[in-house]
């Protein structure tokens, strides 16, 4: 017999990307003064919710397609004890919503989680599906220390899931105890059920080899101008769980300590927002709990530099018609996807494909630009003779013209993003760039699967 838990539906409040300035003043403190502390209880759900609000499941907003009806306590299924949480994942066409997800909130002002190193729980599924996202730190407020793990694989047997905490010292007052989001992407649209039990924060003592990264672990070069800003993306951290298994999580920017080698050129705040204040060059690096993150950003600022971004986590993008033109005789599938919390463009079964911005209002005047910048990752083995040909097409007074530049196999790396800064002068037949409208990626089938990111024009 299932006891339906009360569900409180709340609109998702998105994190405001703003610099928070703390003002302090001196005051007299007596020797007996004590700082406030918060409960250090790690339990979240055993047979019942522990220390959570009465309506402890806050659903994501139904206006976004979230289904608030599939959440129950199951008194017949449990890993340990007498009950578990049952979650029924709806089919995409369910009238109540095509996915299910929400958060668990602490009843009080928050908990001190500095003594733990992981969120853990046991899970099993009615089939071998995946939970799209799980984590903690999401509280429908600042979400300052949110952590996400993607694509948690379910078995029909109970299995322990471990989500490491990036830096426990940050969690002195956390309200967001747990969150999840699940759809039917792994079951071809068929609904399924999964159960969660013994949900808690633990100190396992077996989690090690922290490997944080920014920009997906790659180095990036970004020409810009004074007064511009960019946001550091593709934040990750990978741990070894002690069993030989690696677990990658997506930490919120506030877990990172960002550093600019020359803050007189650009400074970076705790949200990973870089503000350019002077001409020159600076290198942005980051670390978590003293461990240097892989990846760095070289910000090159000048008084006249310009950026026109087609697709980037770092700059504001100009409007684009679409990221896959689906031309006749094209076999290429794909487009923009989420990869570990960051948008990239992923193409499969590639022969050729175009990014289209040829509608009259979206054409780009790149007459003053000097360079096409982009990152390309080949998602398969690179063989001799493979290539990617880039083609740019310009539209002027009803006349289309274009030119191409070929990247050979020797400059491509399998399963790793490579930065390219291609002078537009290399597109030798492109005499006019005042109305650019198409960017083609052509492999003629030599390479079938690629990912692309950070596509922008710049003036040096």
Search tags:
460 residues; mainly beta; Jelly Rolls; Immunoglobulin-like; 7-stranded antiparallel β-sheet; disordered N terminus
The name of the CATH topology of the largest domain is: Jelly Rolls
Please, what is the CATH homologous superfamily of the largest domain?
Galactose-binding lectin
Termini separation (Å)?
69 Å
| Biggest pleated sheet | 9 strands, mixed
Strand content: over 45%
Q: Strand sequence of the main sheet, in spatial order?
A: 2-4-7-12-9-10-18-17-14
Q: Tell me, briefly, the overall form.
A: globular
The average pLDDT is 89
Continuous helix count: 0
Unreliable spans are: 1-34
Structural class: mainly beta
The CATH architecture of the largest domain is Sandwich
Helix content: under 10%
CATH class of the largest domain: Mainly Beta
Rg over C-alpha atoms, rounded to the nearest angstrom: 25 Å
Q: How many strands in all?
A: 34
Number of domains: 3
């Amino acid at each position: 017999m299932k006891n339906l838990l009360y569900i409180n539906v709340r609109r998702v409040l998105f994190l405001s990307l703003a610099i928070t300035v703390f003002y302090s003043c001196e005051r007299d403190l007596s020797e007996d003064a004590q700082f406030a502390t918060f409960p250090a209880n790690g339990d979240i759900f055993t047979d019942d919710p522990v220390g959570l609000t009465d309506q402890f499941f806050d659903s994501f907003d139904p206006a976004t397609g979230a289904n608030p009806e599939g959440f129950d306590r199951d008194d017949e299924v449990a890993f340990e004890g007498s009950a578990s949480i049952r979650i029924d994942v709806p089919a995409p066409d369910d009238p109540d919503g095509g996915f299910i997800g929400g958060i668990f909130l602490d009843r009080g002002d928050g908990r001190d989680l500095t003594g733990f190193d992981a969120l853990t729980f046991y899970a099993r599924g009615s089939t071998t599906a995946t939970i799209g996202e799980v984590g903690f730190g999401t509280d429908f407020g600042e979400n300052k220390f949110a952590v996400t793990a993607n694509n948690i694989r379910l078995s029909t047997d109970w299995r322990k899931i471990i989500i490491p905490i990036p830096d426990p010292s940050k969690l002195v007052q956390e309200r967001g105890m747990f969150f999840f989001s699940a759809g039917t992407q792994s079951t071809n649209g068929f609904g399924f059920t999964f159960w969660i039990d013994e949900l808690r924060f633990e100190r396992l003592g077996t989690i090690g080899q922290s490997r944080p990264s920014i920009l997906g672990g790659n180095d990036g070069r970004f020409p810009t101008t004074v007064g511009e800003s960019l946001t550091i993306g593709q934040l990750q951290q990978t741990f070894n769980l002690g069993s030989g298994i690696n677990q990658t999580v997506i930490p919120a920017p506030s877990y990172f300590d960002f550093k600019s080698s020359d803050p007189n050129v650009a400074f970076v705040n705790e949200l990973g927002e870089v503000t350019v204040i002077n001409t020159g060059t600076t290198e942005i690096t980051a670390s978590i709990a003293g461990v240097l993150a892989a990846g760095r950003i070289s910000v090159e600022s000048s008084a006249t530099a310009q950026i026109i971004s087609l697709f980037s986590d770092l700059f504001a993008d100009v409007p684009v018609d679409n990221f896959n033109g689906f031309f006749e005789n094209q076999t290429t599938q794909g487009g923009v996807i989420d990869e570990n919390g960051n948008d990239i463009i992923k193409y499969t079964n590639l022969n050729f494909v175009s990014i289209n911005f040829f509608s009259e209002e979206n054409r780009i005047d790149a007459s003053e630009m000097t360079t096409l910048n982009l990152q390309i990752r080949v998602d398969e083995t690179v063989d001799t003779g493979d290539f990617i040909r880039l083609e740019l097409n310009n539209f002027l007074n009803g006349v289309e013209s274009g030119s191409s530049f070929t990247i050979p196999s020797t400059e491509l790396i399998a399963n790793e993003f490579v930065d390219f800064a291609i002078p537009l002068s290399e597109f030798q037949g492109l005499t006019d760039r005042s109305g650019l409208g198409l960017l083609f990626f052509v492999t003629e089938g030599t390479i079938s699967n690629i990912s692309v990111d950070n596509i922008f024009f710049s003036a040096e």
